Amino acid sequence: MGAELPDLEKWADDARGWLAARLEPKTTADKEAEAPKPVWGEGEFSVSVFHALSYEEERALLDESMAYHREKYAAGYAALTWSREHGGQGLPLEYERAFHREEAKFKLPEGHETFSVTVGLMAPAIRAFGTPEQQDEFLRPFLSTEVLCCQLFSEPGAGSDLANLSCKADQDGDEWVLNGQKVWSSGAQFSEWGLCITRHDASAPKHKGMTAFMVPMDAPGVEIRQIKQMSGGTSFNEVFLSDVRVPDAHRIGDVGEGWKVALTVLGFERGASSGGGHGKVGANWHDVRMLAEHLGSHHDPVLRQELAGLYTTHKLMQWNNQRAIDKLKAGETPGPVGSIGKLIWADSLRRIGEFA
After folding, report:
1. Bridge partners of 252?
2. Per-residue pLDDT of the chain (356 residues; tens, 9 = 90+)
3. How far is CA 289 from CA 10, 297, 321, in A?
4. By the 8 A CB rule, do 278 and 110 touch?
5. For this structure, is 94 an active site residue?
6. Neighbours of 186 (CB within 10 A)
7. Which of 283, 301, 196 is nearest to 239 (CA)?
8. Are 129 and 257 in contact (CB under 8 A)?
9. How far apart are CA 191 and CA 352, in angstroms?
10. Phi, psi torsion values for 92, nearest 5 degrees
11. Helix, coil or strand: residue 251
12. Strands 251-252 and 149-152, how do they pair?
């Protein structure tokens, strides 16, 4: 028989007290700002997807978010549904939902993509593919954000066509030697580790000749160059790997399983429900509805039809993401559900921009 579960109501009361001792509660104005029908021109407005901050500003934002999460993890309020074996609390989903309801009553540190990638993508990938030794090495540090991890997937010649990558991995005894270039690596400048997808066999079919590795970002031969965006921020990076030696013990999955690892991570990408992200990313249906009402265009029958289409997509994204979340909570990988969610989201952003 398993351990007896704590009383949910008392547990939530304790969580509320823990939060109140660390965070500022939301005011009435804060709560009104989150109401489902905000007013155009009032409050903060941003349709950005990535931060437009200097390195120092972004580092400070990340540190603040990590400090809160580390406290939360130490107190037993993070990774609630993860098994104790993997660094979690082994509690049912209703405890996590109860904590999120309490947490939503307080002002939280702003989230950061590197934080979300580490907790919501990399930790689940290690749980899915890592050996027991790798799980012992990485899961708790990732779940607690004691260390951060980025994706080393895209390349200059292999962006959306990831299976066309050419970053090479040559085996040398019990080590692998990596050579190549990665690009658009968000948060690489802040990460201690990178999950790198490589090509180990150029003669095999392109989906079969790939292998994944955990690469220390301070290893000899790793060079990180920040890419300055036209908005002014430097969230993205290009990463050069020159004769980088990685032990076979840091290979993730079997040799030739890199494509499967990559697809699993990309499935988690749109399915992760937590991990530091607080607030919306990019424009959404509510933004264009407010804009149409502000301009008095919402009475136009053609525009109303387009708005209805955007609302339909908005609801489809919500339902699809909930399916992915449910899979994650059940210890499964999102699979195509996550990929579908990302495709819908990207198409929705384009359509919203055109409508505006």
Report:
1. 212
2. 456 899 999 999 999 999 999 999 987 655 545 545 567 777 667 787 777 888 899 999 999 999 999 999 999 999 999 999 999 999 998 999 999 999 999 999 988 889 889 998 999 999 999 999 999 999 999 999 999 999 999 999 987 788 899 999 999 999 999 999 999 999 999 999 999 999 999 999 988 999 999 999 999 999 999 998 887 888 899 999 999 999 999 999 999 999 999 988 887 764 443 333 344 678 889 899 999 999 999 899 999 999 999 999 999 988 988 887 777 667 676 667 877 888 898 899 999 999 99
3. 41, 10, 22
4. yes
5. no
6. 20
7. 196
8. yes
9. 33
10. -65, 165
11. strand
12. unpaired
**Distance set, CA 311 to CA 161, 191, 248, 289, 304 (Å):** 30, 37, 49, 9, 10
- The CA R_g of the chain, rounded to the nearest whole Å, is 22
Among 270, 267, 275, 264, residue whose Cα is nearest residue 130? 264
* Tokens found for residue 149: 């991890």
pTM assigned to the model: 0.84
d(CA 145, CA 72): 11
Report the amino acid identity of residue 32: E
Nearest to 163 by CA among 235, 237, 263, 66: 263
C-alpha 150, offset from chain centre: 10
First to last CA, the chain: 57
- Single-letter code of the amino acid located at 120: G
The catalytic position among 44, 113, 269, 354 is 269
Phi, psi torsion values for 53, nearest 5 degrees = -120, 160
From residue 38, alpha-carbon distances to 33, 55, 291 in Å are: 7, 32, 11
